[in-house]
Amino acid sequence: MLRSDRSHIRNAALAVLALAAASFAPAAIATAQAATMPQMQASFAETRAQGRAALLSRMIAEIGARPDEASAILDAAIAASPADEKILRATASAAFPQTEFAAAPQPAAETAAKEEKPRIFTGEVAAGANVTSGNTDSTAASLSTALQWDFGKWEVESNGSLEYASDGDTKTTQRYYLDSTVRRDLNERLYAFGFASYTDDQFSGYKYETAGNAGLGYRIYTGKVFKLDVEAGPGYRYSELTNGGVETEPTARIASGLVWNLNDNAKLTNDIAVNVGTDKTISTDTLALTTKLIGALAARASVELRHNSAPPAGSEELDTTSKLSLVYSLN
Question: CA 7, CA 13: separation in Å to the nearest integer?
Fold first, then answer.
């Protein structure tokens, strides 16, 4: 009932306003009919100086005299007094309910928010741990980061990981890994890349290994659900053995990256890299399933295979690492 009373009061007020406009407007309308929009806007601005009621009366009178230009007249009134836009639109719609006025344009900020903007930075941190005690005392922990910067045609990607495990007082795993890739788009699918990596694995037979490659990559699939790219190029590898020896050799790197968004909450990734050298071939294959939990937090199950075709004496060719981790998005 209160809302209905308010509506009647508003309509009565608009009727009074329209009558006032009818007595005010004849001379103004006669000169304004041939006026351009800038001139009309300036005229409305002068009327606004006399008060909001004067502007509303003038606008109603103008629309009543030239209903075919209703939207243009309303726009001119709004341009003369942007702060009164809501009441100007409401008054025009109530006074002329049969007239279709142009919808209010969306603010630039809202329009920009609806557009999907590419992110300059994306990143995540993943951590996993396992501790047992009693008949068997063991500890295992892992920490990894994945960071990516997108500068249009340029892209920088960096990854790092730390793995540690012990059985009682005996250390069984200690491995550090870092890599970085710079990519430069040549067209929508083809790109050039540079890659560098550093590995420190106490139980691999090497004190440390470094490798670098450069070449070309191609994005085979670029959809939102399925993405696949491959890259290849020549390079060089330097390895320092635990016993003090050094191995150096030219290499050729072939790699692929797969992202399969199973749904809005889960994705499957598979990264494969094969670094072929004159003396040995080192291959890695990492398969991971990531599922969103809440907010920026997700769970990940992964398996990584690392194979060295010619490891140092006393080292195995194949290493397998299985992880369960919590992942925190930095976006």
Answer: 10
Joined tokens for residue 269: 């990734």
The runs of H, that is alpha helices, within 66-184 are 70-80, 85-95, 108-114
Among 190, 192, 189, 193, CA closest to 223: 189
CB-based contact 24:58 (threshold 8 Å):
yes
Judge whether 220 and 190 are in contact, CB under 8 Å. Answer: no
237, 211 contact by CB (below 8 A): yes
DSSP letter for 280, please.
-
Residue with tokens 């635990």: 242
Alpha carbons 172 and 166: distance in angstroms, whole number: 5
If we measure between CA atoms, which residue out of 255, 244, 310 comes closest to residue 277?
310
Query: Contact 55/80 with Cβ under 8 angstroms?
Result: yes
In this structure, what DSSP letter does residue 117 have? P
Instruction: Provide the 3-class DSSP secondary structure of residue 186.
Output: coil
List all residues 6 or more positions away from 221 whose beta carbon is below 8 Å from its beta carbon: 227, 228
CB of 159 within 8 A of CB of 148? no
- pLDDT tens-digit profile of 281-317? 999 999 999 999 999 999 999 999 999 999 988 888 9
Return the sign of the alpha-carbon dihedral for residues 89, 91, 93, 99: negative
Q: What is the DSSP letter of 44?
A: H
Mean pLDDT score across all residues of the chain: 85
Question: Is 152 in a helix, a strand, or coil?
Answer: coil
The DSSP output letter for 188 is S
Contact indicator for 74, 81 with CB cutoff of 8 Å: no
Tokens representing 151 are 């500068």
Sign for the CA dihedral angle at 42, 44, 45, 49 comes to positive
Across 48-57, 68-77, 106-115, 150-159, the highest mean pLDDT is recorded for 150-159
